[in-house]
Amino acid sequence: LSHLPEYEGKKFTSATQGDLDLGKLDSEEDKKEQEKQETEFASFIERVKKVLGDKVKEVRITHRLTATPSCIVADSDDMSTQMAKLMAQMGQSVPESKPIFERGKK
């Protein structure tokens, strides 16, 4: 999306990166429910962090997943997976980056 950063004044954001914030679309009730779920999932998050160790940068609860239980996303400061693959195919060195594990709310 670097060649087309916005359209009609709306900025494009990659959904593959972990900094996508859809919180502006949530009601106050939804936000309270999210806080409750984050508390309920705290022990789960700690177990996953322990199991995955340093294979991931972070483990966290996300509220953007509706049909899948979890996903792997890139950090906002890391290059996209497509760019990393392209650089590797061209024989360029690719900086190592660790993914972020996101667990859905359901």
From TrEMBL:
Chain intervals for the UniProt region annotation (Disordered): 1-37
Family per record: Belongs to the heat shock protein 90 family.
Protein name: Molecular chaperone HtpG
A Gene Ontology molecular function term of the record: ATP-dependent protein folding chaperone
Organism: Hirondellea gigas
InterPro entries found in the cross-reference section: HSP90_C, Hsp90_fam
Pfam families associated with the record: HSP90
Positions in coiled-coil regions: none
Keywords from the UniProt entry: Chaperone
Source taxonomy: Eukaryota, Metazoa, Ecdysozoa, Arthropoda, Crustacea
Bias (Basic and acidic residues) ranges: 1-11, 21-37
